[in-house]
Amino acid sequence: MQSSNIQYLPRLDHLRGLAAMIVFTYHLYHHFYHSWQPNPDAWYLGLMVEGHTGVGLFFVLSGFIFMLISLKNGEIRYGDFMRNRFLRIFPLFLFVFFVAISIGRNNFGAADVLYLFFSNLGQAPTSGSFITGAAWTISVEFTFYAIFPFLAMAVADKGATYLSRLVLILLLFKLGAYFINEAPKHMLYSTLLGRLDQFLIGMMAAMVYQRAQEKRWLQQWYWLPLSLLAVWAGVGAMAHFFSYQAQEQHEPWWVIWPTLEALLWAGVCLAYLCTSVQLPKFLNWVLELMGQVSYSWYLLHALVLWLWSQLLGPLSLGSFWIDLPLNMLVVGSLSLAFAKLSYHTLEEPFLGMRRRYTE
Question: How far from the centroid of its chain's Cα atoms is residue 222's Cα?
Fold first, then answer.
């Protein structure tokens, strides 16, 4: 996504596209095949079985991008920043929200309008159906936007260690909340308390990236496969030992898992952005397309999955290892095309209304 506040980095779009694809694959796998149950024996497919980890990558990227803008441009004008974020996020989110309250019209109450800002808490209308369920992350994201300029100012004043101290404070509060909350795993998964450190780690990764660019670190080819291997192993361990799909809520690993997850994805971001390895032109184009429409793809792919399953059902040639990639290709292509339609129709008209928010 191009911005007037920073030079366009196509590989950031690639990473956004990757995050959306992981979440799409996760939803396809469980909606078509595994019914949201843990699958510890398939730990080696953790990036699909527990593909909610794509949300962690999205959050790390948000912290990374805005911190990079701050580092390169200095002070952020709060009003213009929030105006831009509103124009970027809310047109499509409002559309999805009104779909959700229309579906649940018989249970709608006036106070439900407040869920526009708290779609990740309580009985949010968007969480009432599969086709709008992904919207829970938007409130977490927007709350981070609201505090980011102040965090950036604090980093400029207090130095890089400010963010690591915040992460430590959050970890202690997470530990306390773990012993108080009745469903701590879901709480740590879906609230700002559980996720804020992922944005902070993204911010720290931006500071490391700036230094890496100056010192020409991480350019060797092997850093990228090593970082991807670390993510694969980490998510695989989560899938095997403390799956989010498992019924057990008092799983102590979830106190630190979002932090570890963010560190793993930050490593991938740094390795990919710094590597000198070049992608083939066609793959580069596909990833840029996926990144451009990643927000629409993330919010709307569940509708395509749902309609496909209701009208046709999963394509089946008799073997899971053939059926899975076949459905990913066909339904994924359709959902990506729908996302592109949405991007140009519901998002693009508002993107031109944004303005520069840095000096």
Answer: 25
CB contact at 8 A, 218 and 212:
yes
d(CA 204, CA 208): 6
* DSSP SS3 for 181: coil
Asked, for residue 18, whether it belongs to a domain, the answer is yes
- Please count the other Cβ atoms lying within 10 Å of the Cβ belonging to residue 333: 11
Number of compact structural domains in the chain: 1
Both tokens assigned to 151: 């965090």
Site of tokens 């019209």: 105
Contact of 346 with 95, CB cutoff 8 Å: yes
The model's pLDDT over 202-236, given as tens digits with 9 standing for 90+, comes to: 999 999 999 999 999 999 999 999 999 999 999 99
Q: Name the residue among 32, 33, 27 with its Cα closest to residue 51.
A: 27
Whether 5 is covered by a domain: the verdict is: no
Q: What is the CA radius of gyration of the chain?
A: 20
Q: Are 30 and 224 in contact, with CB atoms under 8 Å apart?
A: no
Q: Is 313 left (phi over 0), alpha (psi -120 to 50) or beta?
A: left
Using an 8 Å Cβ cutoff, are 30 and 304 in contact?
A: no
The residue range of the domain holding 305 is 10-351
